[in-house]
């Protein structure tokens, strides 16, 4: 099973921040016997993100991206994924309630712009983020010939990304790896 890791953010492509998420995720995949074939770092640019997702989904079984799930105008990951697979974004009410509750617990009003964090490509699953306002995305995409690519979008905040990997994505990736071995 082959994977691609896509870290997203102008802070990464400009060199302002070091991409430690890709290194960590590659190590985690390696421990599961998943070969990471590509690291594609992309800026906060809808067209560039769209191309990166389309290419990745066409060449690997597992795509893991980090970043771009926040509430600001330059957080474009969810829109790029939806466009790459030609699906509308739909609101997930439990995710919205989790975000609202997070702000209530912090005794802060939730800015209206955070509502976008509860939008997901239709048919995708929510990857819970226990400590942050950016839930992740779990989307299985059918390819030509009956094959599938599984895409996970996680926040760029390392602590949140690692917890979400440990609680959700690792188990799913391991199941994918097991299914691959049983079909051989």
Q: Can you put this structure into words, describing what you see?
A:
The model has no long low-confidence stretch (mean pLDDT 95). Helix content is 42%, strand content 21%. 39% of the residues are buried. It is built from 6 helices and 8 strands. By secondary structure, the protein is α/β, with parallel strands linked by helices.
Number of strands: 8
Unreliable stretches covering 5 or more consecutive residues: none
Pattern of helices and strands: EHHEHEHEHEEEEH
> Approximately how much helix is present in the residues?
40-55%
Question: Could you say which structural class the secondary elements and strand pairing correspond to?
Answer: alpha/beta
Lateral strand order in the biggest sheet? 2-1-3-8-7-6
**How many separate helices?**
6
What is the mean predicted local confidence, pLDDT?
A: 95
N→C terminal distance: 11 Å
For the biggest sheet, the summary is:
6 strands, mixed
- The Rg value, from CA coordinates, equals 16 Å
Task: Set down the secondary structure blueprint.
Blueprint: E1 2-7, H1 10-13, H2 20-31, E2 35-39, H3 46-59, E3 62-66, H4 77-84, E4 89-91, H5 93-105, E5 119-121, E6 125-127, E7 136-142, E8 148-154, H6 158-183
Parallel strand pairs: 1-2, 1-3, 3-8
Antiparallel strand pairs: 4-5, 6-7, 7-8
Helix pairs in contact: 2-6, 3-4
């Amino acid at each position: 099973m082959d994977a691609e890791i896509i870290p997203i953010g102008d802070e990464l492509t400009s060199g302002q921040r070091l991409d430690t998420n890709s290194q960590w995720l590659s190590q985690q995949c390696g421990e599961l016997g998943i070969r990471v074939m590509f690291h594609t770092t992309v800026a906060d640019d809808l067209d560039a993100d769209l191309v990166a997702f389309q290419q990745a989904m066409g060449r690997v079984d597992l795509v893991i991206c980090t970043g771009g799930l926040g509430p600001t105008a330059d957080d474009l990951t969810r829109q790029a994924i939806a466009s790459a697979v030609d699906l509308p974004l739909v609101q997930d009410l439990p995710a919205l309630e989790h975000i609202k509750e997070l702000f209530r617990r912090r005794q802060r009003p939730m800015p209206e712009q955070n509502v976008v964090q509860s939008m997901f490509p239709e048919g995708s699953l929510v990857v819970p983020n226990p400590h942050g306002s950016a839930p992740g995305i779990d989307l299985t995409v059918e390819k030509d010939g009956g094959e599938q690519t599984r895409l996970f979008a996680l926040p760029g905040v390392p602590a949140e990304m690692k917890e979400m990997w440990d609680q959700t994505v690792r188990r799913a990736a391991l199941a994918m790896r097991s299914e691959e071995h049983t079909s051989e």
